[in-house]
Amino acid sequence: MATTTASPPPSDDRARLRSHFNGPESTHPDRWAQLWEAGDFLPWDRGGPNPALIDLLNEKRAIIGDYFVEDASASKRRKTALVPGCGRGYDVLLLANHGYDAYGLEVSEKAVERCYEEKKVNEHKYMRKGHSNNAGTSTFIKGDFFDTQWVHAVPGGKFDLIYDYTGKNSRTTRLVMSKWEAKVRRNRPAWKGYTTGNRKERMRSAREQIG
After folding, report:
1. Which of 114, 167, 177 is nearest to 140 (CA)?
2. Nearest Cα to 95, choosing from 52, 138, 46, 142?
């Protein structure tokens, strides 16, 4: 399984990101896409899944429960998970190999391509020994979270788990996350916060359709 040690981007990287996104919010999706197209400045990419998510899935699973759930007819189905702004898809692949049908969302077509490249080349690194038959699926979608057209690419358009860890990294992402949180709360007010070290990992249950 791929692992990495997460650390905040250097302050000069944060300043460069702030400068890059210094403009109307409506231009931000294109600005993300520009960074992915250039490919030479991706300071959020640390080469593997977030250590806090690894810890949650391996050591603190009771917080989010099993990856199966019973539907209205008492039939079991896999839980679905969404990782908005998934980058190269590390966390999506990790969730899938822990049993979820996991979806990664990115505004950049180039980022989605990178996700499928990571899946093709390194998916075996995320496999849990002795649990390969329990793995769910991993799917990557191009779309803007606040333009809900992308939801139609998801069967049922529902998620049991939404995972994010970018909300505190910059003024831009704080603004985006405040809007996102408001959207999720409109569908289901209850959500769980998971804290490890000085990083807060929000686990939100959003069983209703986003939109």
Report:
1. 114
2. 138
Find the distance separating the first CA and the last CA of the chain, reported in whole Å. Answer: 34
What mean pLDDT is predicted for residues 85-91? 94
Closest CA to 164 of 209, 116, 199: 199
Alpha-carbon dihedral angle through residues 111, 115, 116, 122, given to the nearest 10 degrees: 150
Q: Copy the structure tokens of residue 68.
A: 């199966």
Given a contact cutoff of 8 angstroms between Cβ atoms, the answer to whether 89 and 114 are in contact is yes
Is the pLDDT confidence value at 148 over 90?
no
Beta bridge partners of 105: 84, 141
Using a 10 angstrom Cβ sphere, with 0-12 exposed, 13-18 middle and 19 or more buried, the burial of residue 72 is exposed
Residue 12 to residue 15: CA distance in whole angstroms: 5
Q: What does the block give as tokens for 151?
A: 């939801």
pLDDT at 10 over 80: no
